[in-house]
């Protein structure tokens, strides 16, 4: 479901806010532990402890950049750490896999503190190899629009949105 028709899943609230505009032009499938993510899927953070498997159909001779962000950190009602960056990979070959790209910032799993957080998996098409891109000093306050502009990426070519909320810990019974 990488069409704009799937926007009722919460994607419409990030268009204009997190991303300037969005017209999907490539297909991208995201899965965690074999669970395929469809826009709006809610996932337990523990199921996303390892980096997702991402399959996309890019132009074979082009390069791509992947970002995963949380626009709701530390809580959706007070996102003072917006955007929290979870993964940056650049120079991904359109005919290859994300693993063949250059990891700029290692993947970290979702860490929702309060409320239900949205996570955006965004794929951008590069105009040329990005070469050396500096990792942000802090994962909080990442600006995907600024990152896109400064690296001449334009708008995302594919977005998959999933949600997660804090998992409750098992209660201990006191004797």
Automatic annotation (TrEMBL):
An example Gene Ontology biological process: positive regulation of seed germination
Taxonomy, superkingdom: Eukaryota
PROSITE patterns in the cross-refs: PBP
Family the UniProt entry places it in: Belongs to the phosphatidylethanolamine-binding protein family.
CDD domains: PEBP_euk
Pfam family, one: PBP
Name of this chain's protein: Terminal flower 1
InterPro entries: PEBP (IPR008914), PEBP-like_sf (IPR036610), PEBP_euk (IPR035810), Phosphatidylethanolamine-bd_CS (IPR001858)
């Amino acid at each position: 479901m990488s069409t704009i028709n799937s926007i009722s899943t919460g994607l419409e609230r990030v268009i204009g806010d997190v991303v300037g505009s969005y017209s999907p032009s490539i297909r991208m499938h995201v899965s965690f532990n074999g669970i395929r993510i469809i826009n709006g899927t809610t996932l337990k953070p523990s199921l996303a402890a390892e980096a997702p498997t991402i399959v996309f159909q890019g132009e074979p001779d082009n390069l791509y950049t992947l970002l995963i962000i949380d626009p709701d950190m530390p809580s959706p009602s007070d996102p003072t750490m917006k955007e929290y960056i979870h993964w940056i990979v650049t120079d991904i070959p359109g005919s290859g896999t994300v693993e063949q790209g250059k990891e700029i910032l290692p993947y970290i799993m979702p860490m929702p503190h309060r409320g239900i957080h949205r996570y955006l998996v965004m794929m951008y098409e590069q105009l040329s190899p990005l070469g050396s891109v500096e990792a942000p000093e802090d994962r909080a306050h990442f600006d995907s629009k600024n990152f896109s502009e400064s690296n001449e990426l334009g708008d995302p070519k594919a977005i998959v949105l999933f949600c997660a909320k804090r998992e409750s810990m098992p209660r201990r019974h006191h004797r």
